[in-house]
């Protein structure tokens, strides 16, 4: 007599979404989840209190000041409405400072990222001796105050600028002595060079962290297959660093847009507003005085300028993200 399979038949196949939903455990109520994570919230409570007190509250508080003409003393009473925003929008010095800030960012970020990536590739080599020492050496300028760096550079140019001019004249690189901080273009170039050097360590650390996430087995397999260093870099390192690199680019631009200390100490925005950036412009409006003429403090006008600039930065950041997403979609479509 043949054996008959008496095992129960499997249940009818359900849709993938229904099966996934059935496999997921029921979600706990919000109150239960908050109570379960109560210690985590307790640990971040001091930081949140400081953030609300010194960041969030001043932002919304200064938004009120944009509607007043106020010198920062007493309570604001001279209501001007949106006149501060109109004044900022028609101020040529403001737009010049925006242009100087963008020039600084557009020059510093690409140059700095290329140098940082090259150094990261070298320092990530396990065969390199004293790599920890070199990493510390390149990161030291980051922990140095930009104000101190500005003072040192200014003293160096004041004391050794004439000697440097003599050397350049002797080897016939220049025909007339250079006024290092008196020429707007040269002064801006010096700020850019010092900015590249002083903040290089940030991007170097970011790239090192990104390179260390790439499995070594992939590079070994590429070498076994006969891929050289350039091919491995183009076809392995660059694609696997793409997501990290996007964040590095965005953070680098945001950081470069915040330049203040170096310009304020080194040139004070001069000469003739030739190196004025937005943050020094806002500072001069809020506290009065600049390199060209005395300015009465106007906190309301400075607050309007900061909000105006903030909107520009938000728009630029959104534009960056959209551009990178568009590039990623085109590459994905090309592969498909």
Task: Describe how the helices and strands are arranged.
Elements: H1 16-23, H2 30-36, H3 38-65, E1 68-69, E2 78-79, H4 83-89, H5 92-123, H6 131-143, H7 146-170, H8 184-198, H9 200-211, H10 216-224, H11 229-240, H12 242-256, H13 261-266, H14 278-287, H15 299-335
Antiparallel strand pairs: 1-2
What does this structure look like?
- The termini are far apart.
- With 336 residues, the chain is an all-alpha fold.
- Helix 5 packs antiparallel against helix 12 and helix 14 runs antiparallel to helix 15.
- 70% of the residues lie in helices and 1% in strands.
- A two-stranded antiparallel sheet has the order 1-2.
- The protein contains 15 helices and two strands.
Task: Give the structure's gist in a few sentences.
With 336 residues, this protein is an all-alpha fold. It has helices at 16-23, 30-36, 38-65, 83-89, 92-123, 131-143, 146-170, 184-198, 200-211, 216-224, 229-240, 242-256, 261-266, 278-287, 299-335, and strands at residues 68-69, 78-79.
